[in-house]
Specification:
The complex is a heterotrimer of chains A (590), B (297) and C (315). Chain A is of the alpha+beta class and 590 residues long. Chain A contains 19 helices and 22 strands. Chain A has a 7-stranded mixed beta sheet. Chain A is globular. The mean pLDDT of chain A is 87. Chain B has 10 helices and no strands. In chain B, α2 crosses α3. With 315 residues, chain C is an all-alpha fold. Classes of the chains: A alpha+beta (590), B mainly alpha (297), C mainly alpha (315). Chains in contact: A-B, A-C, B-C. Chains B and C meet through α4, α5, α8 and α10 of B and α1, α6, α7, α8 and α9 of C.
C-alpha cells in the first residue's frame, strides 16, 4: 500500500470516526460496541475522536503493514540510557511530572485499559466492561488472578484506593483528569462501577489507559504503607510486566521480569537497567562502547544523530516530532507594541510596533537555524500545527505565510519602522534555558546578521524563566511545546486569548492580553474543537493556524523530530514504537 | 625544637626585614630563572589581553557554517560547534581572565587589610567582632562561598568579581591582623605614638608598609586562585555573561562536542594553565625574595 | 588545656549555628519560583496551593525558620521540595560516602605522588631531578581540575575505553567497579593537591635538613644521609598536618566541579543542583554538612597543634 492509498484510507477512517452527533451520549456507537473485553479499532477511533484526541498521527501507524520480524527469543538483559537527565526523580504516578519518568512507569504499572499501536483498546487490568445507555455508568469487571510485585492480590479495593488517592489534589497532581467522576462504586471484589457527571468519550481511552491515564494507574496500597511515600517513588510496586529490583536516586533503575505477570507472552526480556545519563559525551561513549543498547528519556542530542546513523551497529529511527519551538515576542515592549491584533492585516502593517514584530519573524532563517542549531534535524515551522498531526499540517504555509523567511522584506520593514539597518533599535534580551542557550545564540546571530539588531542571550533556570514568561516580563523568549498530537494541543493550549500559557500572571491593567489575542482566531479554534467532520475541522484548524502565522502570534521557528536510537541487536516491533513512549515489555533481543 | 621555626598557622609569620625589600627583589629576579620565565609569560598574556582587538584573526562571536573544523591554516586552533574561530575566542578570553584575577584580588586585599589592621590594632571588642566574622567565613571553602554568592545575587561580571573577592577576604584579613599583632609591640610604633600621630596614620603609614611582604605573596597566590575560580564558575554556568568568550565558558560549551572536536577541550584549558603557572612562578620568586614562609592555601 | 579545648568547641558550635542561620535566610533571597518549575505543565491552581501547603511554604519566613531550627537540632533536616520529597538527611547520607570516597582516594593519590616527589626533590635539591619534579608540581598546581578531568575522559574513557566516563558504584557492589569509577575523578582532584603537598614537604624538609646539616657537618656519606632522613622526614610531616585541614577545603571545592563533570552525586553536586532547583532544605542541609566538616577538621588541626606546641594553647 503506497502513501497515497494510506492517506486515503486514513482519511476514510477519520471521516467515519467523526461521524456522530455530539449530543449522543454514546457517540453514535451501540452499547454492544462499548462492551466486552476488547474494543475494535473502529470503536476506539470513534471514542478518540469524540474525546478530541484523534488525528492523523494516531491513525496512520496502525495502517502501515508490519514487516516480518526476525525470530525473537525471550530472555536477555537490556541496558538502557535515559538521556539528558541526572536522576529519575520519582516513579509514583501521582507525582510524575516528566514524560521520561512516565516512559519507565508505564512498564511497572498497569492501567485498566491499554491501547496498542493499532488503536485497538484492550483490557489491561479490566477484563471486560459495559457502558450504560446514557453513557454515564461504566461497569468494569476486573481481571482475576493478578498479583502485585510484592505478592498482594489485586482486587476492587485497589481500584478504589487508587481512585481516592488520585482525586485528592493534596496527594496527586493529576486529580483533574478524573474530575468528571461523580463516584466510584465497588460492586464486589472484582467489579467496580464509575458513575460520571457527564458523558465523556475519552473516559475509557484516556482516563483509564495505562500510558496516558496517570490518574488511574493502579498503585499498591500495601507497597505504599510498607515503603512510605518517598521510598515508594523510588522503588514502586505495581502490577506491570516489570518490577523494580533496586533504585537509588541518581543511579540506575534496575528492572526484572515479573514472573507472575498475568500475560505469559510478556515481557520478553529478563532484566532491564535504566541509567540516567546527563551529558552528551557520556551518552555517546556509552552507546558506542556497547555499554548501552537503547536510548530513551529526553531527545537524543542532534549533534550525535548522524554519527549514530553511520554506525553499522546502531539503528536510528526518525519520526516527525509532535511539537514546535518559537521566538515569543512581547507586544508590550515599547519598540514592538501591538495593542490590538484584531485590525485587518493591512492596517496592522502600518503600525511601527507590528512592523518590527513582523520583521523579526521574517528575519528568522529557519533553514540556517536547523542546520547550525540542530545539525539538520528538524522542520521549519510557521505555526503550531506540526507534521505529526499529518492530516492537519499545512504544507503550503511555508510559502504563503507572512512569516516566511524574507531577509529583504525584513530589512525594509525595519527601515520603515524607523530603524534602518537596526540603527537606534534598543538591545533585546532573548530568554532561554541553560539547555537551549546554544539555540538562542544561533537565533541572536541570525537576527544580528539580517536586521542589524543586538539580541542578548539570557539563559535562565527554568523556574525563573517560566515565572517571567507567565508575567510577560520578557522581551523575547525561546520556547515551545512537545507532545502535541492533536490540533488542540497546539491551538487551544497556546494560541487563544484564554490559553493557559498566554500570560496568566500578568498585570491585566497594564496588559489586556498576554503575547497574542485575535478574535477571529479565537472563534475558529473554539469551533474546530467541537467540529466532528474531519474535513471541516481541518479547514478551521488551518484557518486559525494561518491567522496566528500571518499576524505573528510569535516567531515560529521549527518542529523537532523524534529520534529513537538502539543497537541492531534490539528488536523494536512496530506496535511498540509509539513516539514519546517506550513499551519495554514488547522489546526483545535478537 | 627551638631553632626550627614552628610551622606557621598564618598567625605566626616571620617578620621580614623592613629595610630595602626592593633591592632584594631585583637581585632575586635577576637570578631566579623560574620567576623570569613566569614574568615573561605574564607579560605575553597581558599584551594579548590589551591588544586583543588587533591581533585576533576573526571576530570571536562570528558564527559560520564551518562547524567543528580541525586546526588548520585558516583556523589555527580550529573552530567550535557554531563555527567560531577558537584562537580568537581564546585571545579575547584573556581580557576577562586577567581582569577578574587582578580586580578581585585588589578588592579582597583592600577590604581584608582594612579589616585585619583595624582588628589587630584596636583589639578588644572590635577585634572580637571582626574575628567572629572572619571565623564564620573561614568555616567555608572559598569556592563554595563564591558559588553561593553568585547563586543568590545572580551572574555577570560585577557579581562574579564581588563574589570572589568576598570569598578571599578572610585570607587577607587574617594575615594583616597577625602582622599587626606582631608589629604592634615594636619600638617604632611606640615612637610614632609618642609623637602624636593619629591611629589611622600609625596603622596605615607605619605598620602596614612593614607588613607588605606576606600580603604581596598572598596576593599572587590569590590571583591564581581567582583566575581558576572564575574559570570554574564559568564552567558551572555561574560565571560572567554567557555571551563573552571566557576560557571556562569555552570549556563548558565545548564539553558536549569533545569527541568530535578535541581542540575545544584542550586549548582553553592550556591557556588557563599557562597563566596560572606563570603567576605561580612569579609568586614563588617573590616568596623567596621576601623570605616569607609558605602559608599553604 | 581543657579550657582551651572547651573554648574552641563552643566557638565552633557557635560558628555552625551562625552559618545555619545565615544560609537559611540567604537562600530565600535567590530569585525563582520552585513551585512553578515543578508544576510547569501539569496541575492547576489547586495543585499549586496544595503543594505550597504541603511544603510549608505558606507560613511566614520566621515561623519557617523556627520550625526548621528546632527540627534540625533533633536531626531532622526536612524534606526536599523537589521531585519525590526525599528527606534531606537521606539525600545527604547517600551523597556523603561518594564525596568521602572521592576525597579519600584523591588524598591517597596525592600522597602517593607527593611524598616521594617531595623527598626526592629535597634530597636532590637543585639537580635536574629536582627541577623536573618541581616543574611537574607547578603544572599540577596550575591545571584547573575540571580541565584535567575532561582530558582524562577524552583519553581514558572515550578513546581507550579502559574506564567508565561517568557515574558511581557503591563499594558494596564490588571493589573494582567502585574503584574504576573513582580513579579518573580522583586523579583530577588529587593532582593539584599533590603539588601543594610535595612543595610543602620539600620546603620543610629543606629547613630541617639545613639545621641538621649545620650541626652534623662533620659526618659524611651514608650516615649523614640516613640521619637526615630519619630526623628530617618526621619533622617535615608536621606542616602536612596543617595541610590536612586545608585539604578538606580543596577537596570539597575540587569535588564540586569534578563531581559535575563525572556526574557523581556527592555533596558538591547535591549542593549545586539544590541551588539550581531552588531546593531550600537541600541547600541548607548540604551547606551545614560541608561547614560542619570544615569546622571540625580545623578544630582537629588546632587541637593537634595545641598538643604539639604548648605556646599556642595560651593564645
Amino acid at each position: 500500500m503506497d502513501d497515497k492509498d494510506l492517506i486515503k484510507r486514513a482519511e476514510a477512517e477519520l471521516r467515519d470516526a467523526y461521524d456522530f452527533d455530539p449530543r449522543d451520549p454514546l457517540f453514535g456507537l451501540k452499547k454492544d460496541d462499548m462492551r466486552g473485553n476488547k474494543i475494535s479499532r473502529r470503536t476506539t477511533l470513534r471514542l478518540l475522536a469524540a474525546g478530541g484526541a484523534l488525528g492523523m498521527a494516531q491513525v496512520l501507524p496502525g495502517l502501515r503493514p508490519t514487516a516480518a520480524m526476525a525470530a525473537a527469543h525471550g530472555g536477555g538483559e537490556l541496558n538502557c540510557a535515559w538521556a539528558g537527565v541526572g536522576e529519575i526523580t520519582t516513579l509514583d504516578p501521582a507525582q510524575i511530572g516528566q514524560v521520561l519518568q512516565f516512559q519507565i512507569a508505564s512498564n511497572i504499572y498497569s492501567g485498566l485499559m491499554h491501547i496498542d499501536n493499532a488503536l485497538v483498546a484492550q483490557g489491561d487490568l479490566a477484563e471486560s466492561w459495559e457502558v450504560s445507555e446514557d453513557g454515564l455508568e461504566y461497569t468494569i469487571k476486573l481481571r482475576e488472578g493478578v498479583t502485585f510485585h510484592n505478592g498482594d492480590t489485586f482486587d476492587a479495593e485497589d481500584v478504589v484506593f487508587t481512585f481516592n488517592r488520585s482525586s485528592d489534589p493534596d496527594q496527586s497532581r493529576h486529580s483533574r483528569v478524573i474530575g468528571n467522576v461523580a463516584e466510584l462504586q465497588k460492586l464486589n471484589d472484582y467489579e467496580v462501577k464509575f458513575v460520571l457527571k457527564q458523558p465523556q468519550a475519552s473516559f475509557l481511552t484516556k482516563a483509564l489507559e495505562r500510558s496516558s491515564g496517570r490518574a488511574m494507574t493502579i498503585v499498591s496500597r500495601g507497597g505504599l504503607e510498607a515503603l512510605g511515600l518517598a521510598q515508594y517513588g523510588l522503588t514502586p510496586i505495581g502490577t506491570g510486566p516489570y518490577k523494580v529490583v533496586s533504585h537509588t536516586l541518581g543511579q540506575a533503575v534496575m528492572l526484572e521480569k515479573f514472573a507472575d505477570y498475568y500475560d505469559p507472552e510478556r515481557p520478553k526480556l529478563d532484566k532491564i537497567s535504566i541509567q540516567p545519563v546527563d551529558g552528551v559525551e557520556p551518552l555517546a561513549a556509552a552507546i558506542e562502547a556497547g555499554d548501552i543498547q537503547y536510548v530513551g528519556g529526553n531527545p537524543v542530542p542532534t549533534q550525535l544523530v548522524s554519527r549514530f546513523q553511520e554506525n553499522p551497529d546502531l539503528a536510528v529511527d526518525i519520526k516527525p516530532g509532535p511539537g514546535f519551538q518559537s521566538i515569543w515576542i512581547s507586544p508590550w515592549h515599547e519598540a514592538m507594541t501591538v495593542s490590538d491584533f484584531n485590525k485587518p492585516l493591512e492596517e496592522l502593517k502600518k503600525e511601527k510596533g507590528f512592523m518590527v514584530r513582523l520583521a523579526i519573524a521574517k528575519a528568522l532563517d529557519r533553514e540556517l537555524f536547523i542546520k547550525q542549531g540542530r545539525f539538520g534535524y528538524g522542520v521549519a515551522a510557521h505555526g503550531t500545527i506540526n507534521p505529526a498531526m499529518g492530516y492537519f499540517f499545512d504544507e503550503g504555509l511555508a510559502e504563503t505565510s507572512e512569516q516566511a523567511f524574507d531577509p529583504e522584506g525584513a530589512k525594509a520593514l525595519m527601515a520603515e519602522a524607523g530603524y534602518p539597518g537596526g540603527a537606534g533599535f534598543p538591545d533585546l534580551k532573548l530568554q532561554t534555558t541553560p539547555n537551549t542557550k546554544r539555540d538562542g545564540q544561533v537565533v541572536a546571530n541570525i537576527l544580528k546578521v539580517v536586521l542589524g539588531i543586538n539580541v542578548i542571550v539570557d539563559p535562565k533556570d527554568f523556574s525563573i524563566g517560566i515565572e517571567e514568561f507567565n508575567k510577560m516580563d520578557i522581551d523575547l523568549r525561546l520556547g515551545g511545546s512537545g507532545g502535541d498530537y492533536d490540533p488542540d494541543d497546539g491551538l487551544v493550549d497556546w494560541m487563544q486569548t484564554a490559553s493557559k500559557f498566554n500570560g496568566p500572571d500578568r498585570d491585566p491593567a497594564a496588559m489586556p492580553f498576554g503575547f497574542f489575542s485575535e478574535s477571529e482566531a479565537d472563534a475558529a479554534i473554539d469551533q474546530q474543537a467541537v467540529t466532528a467532520d474531519p474535513a471541516a475541522r481541518r479547514e478551521l484548524v488551518q484557518k486559525a493556524n494561518a491567522i496566528t502565522s500571518n499576524k505573528v502570534a510569535c516567531g515560529f521557528l521549527y518542529h523537532p523530530v523524534d529520534v529513537l536510537v538502539h543497537s541492531t541487536k534490539v528488536i523494536v516491533p512496530e506496535d511498540a514504537r509509539i513516539p514519546g513512549l517506550h513499551e519495554l515489555d514488547r522489546i526483545s533481543l535478537a | 625544637m627551638t631553632d626550627v621555626s614552628v610551622k606557621d598557622l598564618g598567625d605566626d609569620l616571620a617578620v621580614p626585614d623592613p629595610v630595602q625589600p626592593k633591592s632584594r627583589l631585583r637581585s632575586v629576579f635577576a637570578r631566579d630563572r623560574k620567576a623570569q620565565v613566569g614574568l615573561f609569560i605574564m607579560l605575553f598574556f597581558t599584551l594579548t589581553a590589551i591588544l586583543a582587538p588587533l591581533i585576533a584573526p576573526y571576530d570571536p562571536n562570528e558564527m559560520t557554517l564551518d562547524m567543528m573544523t580541525n586546526p588548520s591554516g585558516t583556523h589555527w586552533l580550529g573552530t567550535d560547534d557554531l563555527g567560531r574561530d577558537l584562537l580568537s575566542r581564546i585571545i579575547w578570553g584573556t581580557q576577562i581572565s586577567l581582569f577578574v584575577g587582578v580586580s578581585t584580588v585588589a578588592l579582597a586585599l583592600v577590604g581584608g587589610v582594612i579589616l585585619g589592621v583595624v582588628a589587630g590594632y584596636y583589639g578588644g571588642w572590635i577585634d572580637n567582632i571582626i574575628m567572629r566574622y572572619i571565623d564564620l567565613q573561614w568555616a567555608f571553602p572559598n569556592f563554595i562561598i563564591a558559588v553561593y554568592l553568585v547563586a543568590v545575587f545572580g551572574t555577570g561580571l560585577l557579581n562574579v568579581i564581588v563574589a570572589i573577592s568576598l570569598a578571599f577576604l578572610d585570607d587577607f584579613a587574617r594575615i594583616a591582623r597577625s602582622m599587626v599583632l606582631t608589629l604592634k609591640e615594636e619600638q617604632f610604633v611606640d615612637a610614632a605614638r609618642v609623637q602624636g600621630f593619629s591611629d589611622a596614620r600609625i596603622m596605615f603609614r607605619h605598620i602596614l608598609p612593614n607588613a607588605l611582604a606576606p600580603l604581596i605573596v598572598q596576593a599572587t597566590v590569590s590571583v591564581s586562585y581567582a583566575i581558576l575560580g572564575e574559570a570554574s564558575l564559568s564552567f558551572l554556568g555561574l560565571g560572567v555573561n554567557p555571551n563573552t568568550p571566557t576560557w571556562g565558558l569555552i570549556l563548558a560549551d565545548g564539553r558536549s562536542f569533545i569527541s568530535q572536536a578535541w581542540w575545544l577541550g584542550v586549548y582553553p584549558g592550556l591557556a588557563i594553565m599557562l597563566v596560572v603557572l606563570s603567576i605561580n612562578f612569579v609568586g614563588d620568586g617573590l616568596r623567596d625574595a621576601l623570605d616569607v614562609r609558605e602559608t599553604g592555601s | 588545656m581543657a579550657s582551651y579545648i572547651l573554648r574552641r568547641l563552643i566557638g565552633s558550635l557557635l560558628v555552625m549555628l551562625a552559618v545555619a542561620t545565615l544560609v537559611f535566610f540567604m537562600i530565600r533571597l535567590v530569585p525563582g519560583d520552585p513551585i512553578a518549575a515543578m508544576l510547569a505543565d501539569s496541575g492547576g491552581p489547586e495543585a499549586r496551593e496544595a503543594l505550597i501547603r504541603k511544603l510549608g511554604l505558606d507560613k511566614p519566613v520566621l515561623v519557617q525558620f523556627w520550625k526548621w531550627f528546632i527540627a534540625m537540632l533533633q536531626g531532622d533536616l526536612g524534606n526536599s521540595i523537589y521531585g519525590n520529597n526525599q528527606p534531606v538527611t537521606t539525600i545527604l547520607i547517600e551523597a556523603l560516602p561518594r564525596t568521602m570516597s572521592l576525597a579519600f582516594l584523591s588524598f591517597i593519590i596525592a600522597l602517593v605522588i607527593a611524598i616521594p616527589a617531595g623527598i626526592i626533590s629535597a634530597t636532590r635539591k637543585n639537580t635536574a631531578t629536582d627541577t623536573a619534579v618541581s616543574l611537574f608540581a607547578f603544572l599540577g598546581l596550575s591545571m584547573p581540575d575540571f580541565w584535567l578531568a575532561i582530558l582524562l575522559i577524552i583519553v581514558f574513557a572515550a578513546n581507550l575505553q579502559w574506564l567508565p566516563a561517568i557515574g558511581y558504584v557503591p563499594l558494596a557492589e564490588g571493589f573494582w567497579p567502585w574503584l574504576s569509577h573513582l580513579i579518573l575523578p580522583s586523579i583530577a582532584i588529587g593532582t593539584g593537591f599533590s603539588a601543594i603537598i610535595a612543595r610543602m614537604i620539600r620546603s620543610s624538609m629543606l629547613e630541617v635538613m639545613q639545621a641538621d646539616y649545620m650541626r652534623t657537618a662533620a659526618s659524611k656519606g651514608l650516615t649523614m644521609r640516613v640521619q637526615m632522613l630519619r630526623h628530617a622526614f618526621p619533622n617535615a610531616l608536621i606542616p602536612v598536618v596543617t595541610v590536612i585541614g586545608i585539604a578538606f577545603a580543596l577537596l570539597i571545592s575540587g569535588a564540586v566541579v569534578v563531581e559535575n563533570v563525572f556526574a557523581i552525586k556527592g555533596l558538591g553536586r547535591v549542593l549545586i543542583q539544590g541551588i539550581q532547583n531552588r531546593d531550600y532544605p537541600v541547600v541548607q542541609g548540604a551547606v551545614l554538612v560541608v561547614s560542619a566538616f570544615f569546622v571540625l577538621s580545623n578544630l582537629a588541626v588546632d587541637l593537634l597543634y595545641a598538643v604539639i606546641d604548648p605556646r599556642i594553647r595560651y593564645s
